[in-house]
């Protein structure tokens, strides 16, 4: 689904990502760990195609299309969606209107989606205006549910969310990962190819209690340094810290 080859990215003239290689096959969820400032958000913003993130070399391929320099709206139409770490407040734009704009299927019932996220009371507010951290995450998830992307980029979905609402966020992410997919007639679970793919950034690892991660990776100083079981990586980081973690021979 997503293939990143030898990617180099500069922000504000400063090299941030260095020769990043990553592959997320159809239906897989990968977890991205890394200390503050290591380039995790930069990687997500570059995959989504935001301006200010200059690709200096390398290639990003999504569903077989070279998207390295594709405009952001075309990437969204192709099926990439992002949950921001710190989304902006948009004065003068109602959340309901934004969700209508994001909606892939014009028949999607926005009120029903909002109800599931306990977010119905906020639909008429301006986007993210005076929302708590947890409410902002639910607003972001609502937009993603309407968009129905095939690749989800989730930047710290647990930040600002209390433990009770973590279950709501976890359920919403799981719904997003299987959403609108016809089930395999010979099996009660969707096959891997029918599921959506996901790259999720986490510092705490709380999200791992709610989603099934296929692989974890560590980004350290702009370089992908480790790729293995996400829970194992989290255990190592907690026990030894990032510097020791990336120094291990795997
Ligand atoms: N617009 C910018 N101009 C200059 N430097 C920037 C800009 N945006 C990000 N950076 C720098 O790029 C580096 C990587 O930032 P990034 O947000 O990708 O890190 P991160 O791994 O997501 O960090 P965190 O875990 O704290 O969210 C940081 O040193 C940051 O200060």
Automatic annotation (TrEMBL):
Pfam families: ABC_tran. Keywords: ATP-binding, Nucleotide-binding. One of its GO terms (molecular function) is ATP binding. Residues 2-246 form the ABC transporter domain. It comes from Desulfatibacillum alkenivorans DSM 16219. Belongs to the ABC transporter superfamily. Ycf16 family. The keyword Nucleotide-binding applies. It comes from the Bacteria. CDD domains: ABC_FeS_Assembly. This is Iron-regulated ABC transporter ATPase subunit SufC.
């Amino acid at each position: 689904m997503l293939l990143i080859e030898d990617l180099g990215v500069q922000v504000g003239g400063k090299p941030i990502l260095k020769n990043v290689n990553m592959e997320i096959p159809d239906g897989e969820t990968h977890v991205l760990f890394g200390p503050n400032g290591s380039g995790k958000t930069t990687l997500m913003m570059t995959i989504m195609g935001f301006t200010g993130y200059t690709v200096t070399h390398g290639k990003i391929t999504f569903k077989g299309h070279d998207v390295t320099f594709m405009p952001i709206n075309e990437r969204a139409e192709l099926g990439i969606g992002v949950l921001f770490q710190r989304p902006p407040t948009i004065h003068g734009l109602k959340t309901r209107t934004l969700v209508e704009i994001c909606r892939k299927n014009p028949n999607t019932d926005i009120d029903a989606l909002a109800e599931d996220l306990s977010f119905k009371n906020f639909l008429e507010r301006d986007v993210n205006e005076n929302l708590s951290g947890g409410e902002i995450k639910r607003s972001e998830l609502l937009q993603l549910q309407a968009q129905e992307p095939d690749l989800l980029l989730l930047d710290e979905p647990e930040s600002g969310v209390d433990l009770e609402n973590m279950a709501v966020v976890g359920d919403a992410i799981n719904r997003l990962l299987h959403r609108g997919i016809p089930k395999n007639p010979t099996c009660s679970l969707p096959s891997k190819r029918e599921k959506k793919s996901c790259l999720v950034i986490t510092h705490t690892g709380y999200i791992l209690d709610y989603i099934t991660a296929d692989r974890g990776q560590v980004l350290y100083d702009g370089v992908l340094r480790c790729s293995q079981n996400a829970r194992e990586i989290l255990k190592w980081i907690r026990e030894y810290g990032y510097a020791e973690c990336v120094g291990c021979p795997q």
